Amino acid sequence: MKKKESTKDVILESASNLFKLQGYHGTGVSQIIEKSGAPKGSLYYHFPKGKEEIATEAVNLMKHHVVDLVLKDLSKKDNLVEAFQYHVNRLASLFDKNGIMDCLHMGVIASETAMTHESIRIACDAAYKDWQSLYAGKLEEFGFESEKAKELSITINAMIEGACILSMTSKSGYPLRCIARQLPMLLAE
Q: How many Cβ atoms are within 10 Å of 118's Cβ, its own excluded?
């Protein structure tokens, strides 16, 4: 028997879907209430600071989702290049299925809110740093010096984020697959 989702989770999932489709500024609290089916009082009970708090929670949820994905993907292969290629190609396959990932894309909400909503900017920054830390750890595991691993992790993260935006607009994982094919040159010592 499937466990019933909590009202908080339903609100968060509904808001995440709206943010993904319409952006932060294009989504109103009334839309979140309507889509979630939750009473207005429940929304403010679970998220007293309103839409900004919901967006911050959505970013944190996405961060944990991606951390799990990265950990699984990078552990699938014993070769460094193959591990990163597997990870990037797996992201590409998510875009190939329906033209868009089934989760909030960090780059979209980060670019929309970084200058105006400090709590969301901080959550996005923390998410990127956590992902980069995972990438750097894998690179160090394969012999890269710490500073080089950190720089490469930022480079890989930036390439993936940019390719995700291109993949959203083209409704294809092709831009991500292009990155996967270039990784051997980037990761050559």
A: 12
